Amino acid sequence: MRFGTLNDIETNKKTVLLRVDFNSPIDPASNIILDDKRFREHAPTVRNLSDSKLIIATHQSRPLKKDFTTLKAHAERLERLIGRPVEYIDDIFGRCARDAVKRMECGDVLMLENLRFNAEENIKMSPEDGASTHLARGLSSMADFYVNDAFGTAHRSQPTIVGIPLAMKSVAGTLMEKEVSCLSRVFSDSPKPVTFVLGGTKVDDSLSVAKNVLECKTADKILIVGVVANVFLTAKGINIGDPSYDLIKKLGYSDEVSKAAEILSKFKDRVVLPEYVAVRNSDGEREEVSVDKIPKKSPVLDLGIDSVASFCDILQNSGTVVFNGPAGLFEESMFSTGTFELLKASAEADFSVVGGGHTAVVVESLGINEKFSHISTGGGACIEFLTGKMLPAISALEKSWELYREKCS
Ligand SMILES: Nc1ncnc2c1ncn2[C@@H]1O[C@H](COP(=O)(O)OP(=O)(O)O)[C@@H](O)[C@H]1O
Ligand SMILES: O=C(OP(=O)(O)O)[C@H](O)COP(=O)(O)O
């Protein structure tokens, strides 16, 4: 890695500004945090910084969304998790925040207000512009070191992600380091053969990942499931029925059909499509059909049992599995078989990685999370990483390391 980590800085008695991504599902009516996975994943970094005066900064949601809220509940949740007091302050870099920082002693933890309450944090900008914002200048003046642990936000070019690292000595936190090293391993020394499972509804992202990992020979095989499979089947000239085709149109992915066709023509032998699917029939029940017999009026909602078996066979013979996006409408138990069975088979691989919010939730609900080598905290960030793009947060940390390396110890 070409950026600094916590091992490269001496934080004892120093003031550290830590950027995390505590953006979590919240019940807007009660403000209760519904899933604290990201808190649990950032906890090691917080613990590693227990000898410092620790200022924590995060965002929650976006302006105008129902779960765009203050961070009092986030501070309380973190406090419970780490077993140490976390003071919440309803300010970001104004006088109240600065005074609170001045009062801090070693071991204290302070949580600032939602970063996206500041307009500048909601704007995509260059690192140079980011560094010159009031937000980046105000925050960087409060601490000796900046630690970016927010992998979930690593694909955003916003002031705290790309600007602050230009303005001060910055390193990656424990979670950022783990995400980058685990996801990078997919591209380098992962056990062979490497199989990707691409499903869910983000067809454009999945096609970019497929193209990248097939072209650079990262993936030996790609198993296509979910709505992504319906696009590929259409590209192959198969009639997937009106409801499934209407969903593709509604999601705005009609243009992706020709891109899927291009991938199929180039990499036919390495892209595996379902031969059998499950539809909801006119009685509202699950019905198994082969793909050349999909009824005109029935939506395709899962992988068929025979294809589940053949896909599991491929997964069981894979050294590495990267799984991103469910195989069907798993929220309905009738259509959860494909997702559940494929995930269980993937968990047995020597090296197994899961990306995507829905997929990670299923893995936890099946109680097989410990069996996976890595479950990414990033949705968009993980998928952009797998498309082979350099994430803005990582390039900013690398630049910071170049600029400040000498001054870090
Ligand atoms: N064939 C299908 N038809 C309709 N919805 C599907 C189908 N396959 C998967 N889905 C839906 O995809 C959603 C998750 O997709 P996505 O957001 O891309 O996953 P992730 O959050 O893991 O990246 C789930 O709500 C699931 O019900
Ligand atoms: O949850 C996040 O992204 P994700 O939903 O793609 O995992 C991050 O906190 C980034 O949030 P954003 O997509 O509002 O910039």
UniProtKB/TrEMBL annotation:
Task: Write the Enzyme Commission number(s) for this entry.
Answer: 2.7.2.3
Which Gene Ontology terms cover its molecular function? ADP binding; ATP binding; phosphoglycerate kinase activity
User: Taking the first listed entry, what is the main subcellular location of this protein, grouped into a coarse class?
Assistant: cytoplasm
Reactions this protein catalyses: (2R)-3-phosphoglycerate + ATP = (2R)-3-phospho-glyceroyl phosphate + ADP
Query: How is this protein annotated for GO cellular component?
Result: cytosol
EC main group: transferase
* GO BP: gluconeogenesis; glycolytic process
- Which Pfam family name is an example for this entry? PGK
Q: Give compartment(s).
A: Cytoplasm
Instruction: Give the highest taxon in the source lineage.
Output: Archaea
Q: What keywords appear on the UniProt entry?
A: ATP-binding, Cytoplasm, Glycolysis, Kinase, Nucleotide-binding, Transferase
Annotated substrate binding sites: 21-23, 38, 59-62, 116, 156
UniProt binding sites for (2R)-3-phosphoglycerate: 38, 116, 156
- UniProt pathway annotation: Carbohydrate degradation; glycolysis; pyruvate from D-glyceraldehyde 3-phosphate: step 2/5
Q: Which residues bind ATP?
A: 331, 356-359
Tell me, how does this one assemble?
Monomer.
Q: So what family is this one in?
A: Belongs to the phosphoglycerate kinase family.
Instruction: Supply the PANTHER family for this chain.
Output: PHOSPHOGLYCERATE KINASE, PHOSPHOGLYCERATE KINASE 1, CHLOROPLASTIC-RELATED
Q: What is this protein called?
A: Phosphoglycerate kinase
Q: Which organism is it from?
A: Methanomicrobium antiquum
